[in-house]
Specification:
Chain lengths: 573, 183
C-alpha cells in the first residue's frame, strides 16, 4: 500500500524528522523512500569530510541548504596532528558554487578555511545566512570582511576558538548600513581591535540580535552603550570588564544590567577586575549558562560570591581556581546543573592542588541532574569515582584528566580500574568517555561489558596488553570513534576484527605498538578504509621496514578511496 | 644521585624544572608511574620494578598534548601568563601620611583617571600635568619608581609604558618635586 502513498505526503512526514540519524534510517527503508528523502533533505551532517566527496554529496542531496563538516581528528586539538594534515573546506565550497547549491548555512569544525574560501562563500551564495566556525584556522579578518560586506541576509556569524590572523582591517565596519538581519554575532576569539562605533551602530540596527559575544578589545564603557541598545539580548559574551568600581561608568553598567532581564547565558570576561563583578549579580538569577573559563585572575572567593546567585544554572564552565570549596558551593546552589567543565588554570600542574576528587564528589552529591562533565584535576580515587557513579547515573559524557596521566588512586595507590568500572556500570546511557590515571586491562574489560551505548572513547597511557583494546572493540557495539595514545596495544588487537572499523567513523592510534606491516595488511584487506600513517621524521620511504612501529596512524571508513590532498608526511597505505 | 649534583653546579634548574606530579614528589616515584611505552607485549609479564631500572633517567620533559587542553586555550593561557592580567597592585605613599595605600593600575585607562583617584584617596590636589612644568603650582606631585630604580615624574611616558614600568608611587610635596620637572 505504501506504493500509493503520494510523495508529497511522505515528504511532509519526513519534515518532522529533524535528526540526521532518523533521516538516514528512513532512507534505508526502500528505494522510493530513499528517493523522497534525498530530494527533501536540507540539512546534511558529515562527521568526517573525507568519507565522501562534495560531488557525491550534491548528487545525492541537490537541495541541501545546511552543511556541517568536521575535518581533523580530535587529537589535533592537542597538537598531535600536524597543521597541514588536511581538512580543507575549499573543494566543498567550490563544488557547491559550481553546482548552484542554495547554501544557507555552513558549520565547520577543525577545518582549514582560507580567505579565498570565505570570499567564495560570500559571493556565490546569495541566501547565505549562517556561518559557524569551531577550532578552525587558515583565515584572517580579510575573510570576515568579505562575509560582512557581501552576505546580505546574514543572521549568524559564530567564531568559536579559532586562530584568526588579524590584518587590522575594519572588518566589522564592512557590515553595510542595510544589514539589519543579525541574530547572532560571536567574535570573542579575535585578537585585534574592532571599530567600537561600528559595533554600536550594528547592534543598534539589528533589532533581532539575540546573541553577542565580543572580544577583549571591547571595553566596559562600550559594553554599557551596547547593552543600552540591546536589552533584548539572550546570550552575552563580555570582553573587557575592567574599570574603577567607584566610577560613573560602572554605575551605569550596573543599572544597565538590571534592564537586561532576558540574558540567560553569560561568558567572556576576557579581562576582568574582580571588584567589578557585583555589577552582574542581577542577571545571575536568570542564568542557565555561565562560562568563566577564559576569565583570568578571579579567585575562589570571588567566584563563589558570583555563583551563589546562580541557582538556575544548567551549564557551568570554570577554571580550577574555583577549588574544592568553590565546587561545594556550586553543589549546594546549582541544583539544576547538567553540565560542568573545570579547566586547568596552570598547565604544568605544579601549582597548588586546585581541585581534587573531593570537589567532584561534592558536585555529584549536590547536582543530581548532572549528565556531562569534563574535569581536570590533580588527583583521583576509586572511592570518589564509585561515589560519583552512585550519585549520578545519568552521565552521557564523562571526561576526566589527571595532571599526571598515569596517576594511581591517590589514597590506595591502586589503578583506577574499579572507579571507572563503576562509572560505566552505573551510567547505562554513557556515550562519551575519556579516561586517565593508572589503568590496566581490567578497566577495558569493564567497558566492553557495560558501556553498551558508548560512541566515543579516548584512551591515553593506559592498559597492559592487546587484551585491553580487544575488550573494547568486541564489547562496545555502538563505538564510533576510538582514539588511543601512548598505550601498549599492537598488531594483534588492530587486526583481530577488521570489519569492525567499517562500523566506526575512525580510529586513531599514536605511540602504540602497531607496526607498519600491520597497517599495510589492514589497508590491503579493507579497501573501504583509508589507513593513513603520519610520519614526521625525515626517514626515506625505502628505509622504513614493516617491523617499524608507526608513530601515528589514523584510519577511517570512506566511500571515495584515498584522498588526493594528503601532504608528504601522510602515507595512505 | 648523579643527576642532583649536575643540577647543583648548574643554574639550579631543578627548582624550576617542569614535571608532572605534585611538588615535593621525587623522581623515582614518578618513574614508577610513568609508563615506558616502548616495551613489546612479550615483556608485559615483567614487573614494574624491572622497567624502572631499565628506563634511562631522561630529563623530565613536558608530555606533548597533556593535559589534553585545546591549543587555542593553551595559547590564551600562555599569553596571559606573559602579560599578567590579574591586577597590577602598586604601593602608594604620600609624604606625611602615616601609612601607605595600594591601588590596581589596571583599573585605569589613562593618566587623568589615575590622578583623580589619587586625589580622592589622599584628599590632596595634584593639578594638571604639563611637559614643560610638570605639576608646578600644585600642592603635590605624583612620582613613581621605575624598573631601574629611578624616581620619575608621572605623565612623561605613554600610559601603557608607564603601567608596565611602574613599581610603586610616591606623592611628593610640590616644593620637593620642583627639581624633577627640570628638562
Amino acid at each position: 500500500m505504501l506504493n500509493y502513498f503520494p510523495e508529497e505526503v511522505l515528504e511532509h512526514v519526513f519534515d518532522f524528522l529533524t535528526s540526521h540519524r532518523d533521516r538516514n534510517a528512513v532512507s534505508l527503508v526502500c528505494k522510493s523512500w530513499y528517493a523522497v528523502e534525498r530530494f527533501s533533505r536540507e540539512k546534511v551532517f558529515i562527521g568526517n569530510c573525507y568519507t565522501i566527496s562534495p560531488e557525491r554529496l550534491i548528487a545525492r542531496f541537490p537541495r541541501v541548504r545546511s552543511l556541517t563538516l568536521k575535518g581533523k581528528p580530535h587529537f589535533a586539538d592537542f597538537n598531535l596532528v600536524p597543521h597541514d594534515w588536511g581538512g580543507y573546506v575549499q573543494p566543498w565550497i567550490e563544488s557547491m558554487a559550481k553546482a548552484g547549491v542554495n547554501l544557507e548555512e555552513l558549520r565547520l569544525k577543525r577545518m582549514l578555511v582560507s580567505d579565498e574560501s570565505l570570499d567564495l562563500l560570500a559571493n556565490f551564495f546569495p541566501n547565505f545566512k549562517s556561518l559557524v566556525l569551531v577550532s578552525c584556522d587558515g583565515f584572517s579578518t580579510d575573510g570576515l570582511a568579505a562575509i560582512a560586506s557581501n552576505c546580505r541576509f546574514l543572521r549568524e556569524l559564530d567564531l568559536q576558538e579559532n586562530e584568526i590572523e588579524d590584518r587590522r582591517g575594519q572588518w566589522l565596519s564592512c557590515f553595510p548600513d542595510s544589514c539589519t538581519s543579525l541574530v547572532s554575532l560571536n567574535f570573542a576569539c579575535l585578537k585585534g581591535e574592532v571599530n567600537l562605533l561600528s559595533l554600536e551602530r550594528l547592534v543598534a540596527r539589528c533589532r533581532n540580535l539575540r546573541s553577542l559575544r565580543v572580544n577583549h578589545a571591547v571595553p566596559l564603557d562600550a559594553l554599557q552603550r551596547i547593552l543600552a541598545q540591546a536589552p533584548q539580548l539572550v546570550d552575552l559574551g563580555i570582553g573587557s570588564f575592567v574599570h574603577d568600581p567607584d566610577s560613573e561608568i560602572y554605575n551605569k553598567i550596573e543599572t544597565g544590567m538590571q534592564k537586561c532581564t532576558s540574558i540567560t547565558s553569560l561568558s567572556g570576561f576576557l579581562d576582568v577586575t574582580a571588584r567589578c563583578l557585583p555589577a552582574v549579580y542581577t542577571i545571575c538569577r536568570h542564568l542557565t549558562s555561565l562560562n568563566l573559563s577564559y576569565a583570568p585572575g578571579i579567585y575562589s572567593d570571588e567566584l563563589v560570591k558570583l555563583i551563589c546567585h546562580c541557582n538556575k544554572l544548567e551549564r557551568l564552565l570554570v577554571l580550577d581556581t574555583i577549588g574544592d570549596k568553590g565546587l561545594g558551593v556550586v553543589a549546594s546552589t546549582c541544583k539544576e546543573l547538567q553540565e560542568l567543565r573545570v579547566f586547568p588554570s596552570d598547565l604544568y600542574g605544579v601549582g597548588n592542588a586546585a581541585v581534587t576528587e573531593e570537589g567532584l564528589v561534592a558536585i555529584s552529591a549536590g547536582c543530581r541532574k548532572l549528565n556531562s562533565i569534563l574535569y581536570f584535576c590533580e588527583q583521583m580515587t576509586n572511592a570518589a569515582l564509585i561515589m560519583v557513579a552512585k550519585n549520578c547515573p545519568n552521565f552521557i559524557r564523562f571526561r576526566l584528566a589527571t595532571f599526571n596521566p598515569t596517576a594511581p588512586d591517590a589514597v590506595t595507590m591502586q589503578p583506577l580500574d574499579e572507579g571507572f568500572g563503576a562509572i560505566v556500570k552505573s551510567c547505562k546511557g554513557l556515550k562519551r568517555l575519556s579516561v586517565s590515571g593508572l589503568l590496566t586491562d581490567q578497566v577495558f574489560l569493564y567497558m566492553g561489558r557495560y558501556a553498551k551505548q558508548l560512541e566515543m572513547l579516548s584512551i591515553a597511557f593506559a592498559g597492559d596488553s592487546d587484551k585491553g583494546m580487544l575488550y573494547v572493540l568486541n564489547g562496545c557495539k555502538k563505538l564510533k570513534k576510538l582514539e588511543i595514545r601512548d598505550s601498549p596495544f599492537g598488531n594483534a588487537a588492530l587486526l583481530a576484527d577488521m570489519g569492525k572499523y567499517e562500523t566506526m567513523r575512525s580510529l586513531w592510534m599514536s605511540s602504540c605498538e602497531v607496526t607498519l606491516g600491520a597497517c599495510k595488511t589492514l589497508a590491503q584487506k579493507m579497501p573501504r578504509l583509508n589507513v593513513e600513517v603520519i610520519n614526521e621524521s625525515d626517514q626515506m620511504e625505502a628505509s622504513v621496514d614493516d617491523k617499524h612501529k608507526v608513530e601515528k596512524m589514523y584510519l577511517y571508513r570512506t566511500l571515495v578511496g584515498p584522498r588526493k590532498d594528503a601532504p608528504d608526511f601522510v602515507w595512505t597505505l | 644521585m648523579e643527576r642532583a649534583s649536575a643540577y647543583e653546579n648548574d643554574l639550579n634548574l631543578k627548582a624550576t624544572e617542569l614535571r608532572l606530579g605534585l611538588p615535593g614528589t621525587d623522581e623515582s616515584s614518578e618513574k614508577q608511574s610513568l609508563r615506558n611505552n616502548k616495551r613489546s607485549s612479550a615483556e608485559m609479564d615483567n614487573s614494574c620494578e624491572k622497567n624502572e631500572q631499565e628506563s634511562s633517567p631522561a630529563p623530565k620533559a613536558q608530555v606533548v598534548g597533556w593535559p589534553p587542553v585545546r591549543s587555542y586555550r593553551k595559547n590564551v593561557l600562555h599569553q596571559r601568563n606573559e602579560s599578567d592580567l590579574s591586577g597590577m597592585f602598586v604601593k602608594v605613599s604620600m609624604d606625611g601620611a602615616p601609612y601607605l595605600r595600594k591601588i590596581d593600575l589596571k583599573v585605569y585607562k589613562k593618566y587623568p583617571d589615575l590622578l583623580k583617584a589619587l586625589e580622592n584617596m589622599f584628599k590632596c590636589s595634584i593639578g594638571v600635568y604639563s611637559e614643560r612644568e610638570g605639576y608646578n603650582g600644585s600642592e603635590f606631585a605624583p612620582t613613581y619608581e621605575d624598573k631601574d630604580g629611578d624616581w620619575m615624574l608621572v605623565g612623561d611616558v605613554p600610559w601603557d609604558m608607564f603601567i608596565t614600568s611602574c613599581k610603586r608611587l610616591r606623592i611628593m610635596k610640590g616644593s620637593e618635586a620642583k627639581g624633577l620637572a627640570c628638562l
